[in-house]
Amino acid sequence: MSRTNNIKQVGFKVDGMSCSSCSNNIEKKLNALKGIVSANISIATEKGHVEYDDHIIDIKTILFAIDNLGYKAMLDEEKNTQKVTLRVKGMSCTACATNIEKSLHTVEGVVSANVNFAVEKVTIEYDPIKVRLIDFQKKVSSLGYELNLDEDENDGIDEDEIKMNKAKKTMIISSVFTGAIMGLMMIHM
Q1: Cβ atoms 78, 124 nearer than 8 A
Q2: With the CA atoms of 174, 177, 183 and 185 taken in that order, what torsion angle do they form, in degrees rounded to the nearest 10?
Q3: What would the pLDDT profile of 131-154 be if each residue is shown by its tens digit?
Q4: Where are the domains of the chain?
Q5: pTM for this model (two decimals)
């Protein structure tokens, strides 16, 4: 099972650096943290960019690690929320979707949540400093539904396509038997 959907990116400003050794020091520290895919710090722009697995590490921990080195890290203002679309299983009506939506809005850090019953998906805009994807999964499962955090677990096979193919096979088999029965009825008339 691939974890590529868990990889997130964040940009931030770093104050207090005075030379390239400072930026190298921060990069080494961040790249040594478990869950960091890559970390780049620029002394010229005083900005940093990190790719990380949000199931292993969160943004608070990343910023805290930089602060512990004696620098001040702050999220870029234009990128302080993230959006994610995930599959929800177990809904049987639009009231279920409304229930999930209302429940997600109570989670601290959620900016918006929109559940689409027809396609069984939820789109959540959230502040990654305050909340993690696993928190959404816990909240939704407490309501009796399943939130799929690993969208690529079927290796690119769409669940709707699987349902359509199954229905198509059922229809073809039914048509064959119906045709045979009708043929027998015509013979015996």
Answers
A1: no
A2: -90
A3: 888 889 899 999 999 988 755 444
A4: 4-79, 82-148
A5: 0.45
